[in-house]
Amino acid sequence: MSVPALEFGVAQFKIPGEDESGDQHLVSESDSGVLIAVMDGIGHGAEAANASRAAAAILHAETDEPIISLVERCHEGLRRTRGVVMSLACIDPRHGLMTWLGVGNVQGMLVRAGARKGKVQETLLLRGGVVGAQLPPLQATVLPIAAGDTLVFATDGIRGSFIETLSPLESPQHAADRVLQGYRRGNDDALIFFGRFTGASA
After folding, report:
1. Would you tell me how many other CB atoms lie within 10 Å of the CB of residue 95?
2. How many CA atoms lie within 13 A of 52 on its CB side?
3. Which has the minimum average pLDDT: 9-13, 112-116, 138-142, 187-191?
4. Which of 41, 45, 112, 130 is the most exposed place for a label (fewest CB within 10 A)?
């Protein structure tokens, strides 16, 4: 799958016995770039999925807003739900920049083009809290990105040891499928997202 400046792949698992997964993702284009988000609804099942979908709807409607404002809008909009933990990134392809932020435990990392296998150069600083229930002080980080750099988001249904297998050469969808197959815990919803920056669009 792709949007301007980004090729991406996603793999998802819902725990047996549930109709829906509480782990959801969003890729949304705007005039300023691409917004990527991964949400993990608290708990599992329909109520967790409802919370994640509500967050995705808010983000999609407000994609042009600054990233901190997006999280604050989600926090207000999710107060009547279970809430979510979430990590999100805004890619500005014209300037070669990525702004990212995480609340809770959705892991985020950036694998630079040309990196050795298993070598992660940047890791997202996660702040404890739940969007919709208890929001921590928010601080976004801005990083330069270049063509071939790969953004990875993973919910806590994925064992963290998958990081040792990351390669900048693997296609995003193949990487997502491989990690889900080999590293999902099996007792929780799981979602893994790989997004490779393809460079500024014309």
Report:
1. 13
2. 28
3. 112-116
4. 112
In the predicted model, what is the mean pLDDT of residues 179-196?
95
Q: For residue 61, what is the enclosing H or E element? A: helix 46-61
Nearest in space to 110 (alpha carbons), one of 36, 43, 55: 36
For the chain, give every domain's residue range: 2-197
d(CA 176, CA 126): 22
Mean pLDDT (the chain, rounded): 93
With beta carbons less than 8 A apart as the criterion, state whether 29 and 8 touch.
Answer: no
Q: How far apart are CA 56 and CA 137, in angstroms?
A: 21
* 190-197 vs 6-13, strand pairing mode: antiparallel
- CATH code: domain 2-197 is 3.60.40.10
Residue 202 pLDDT class (50, 70, 90 cuts): very low
Residue indicated by tokens 């999609």: 60
pLDDT at 23: 96
**Type of residue numbered 59:** L
Average pLDDT over residues 140-162: 96
Cβ(6)–Cβ(34) under 8 Å?
Answer: yes
Neighbours of 198 (CB within 10 A): 16
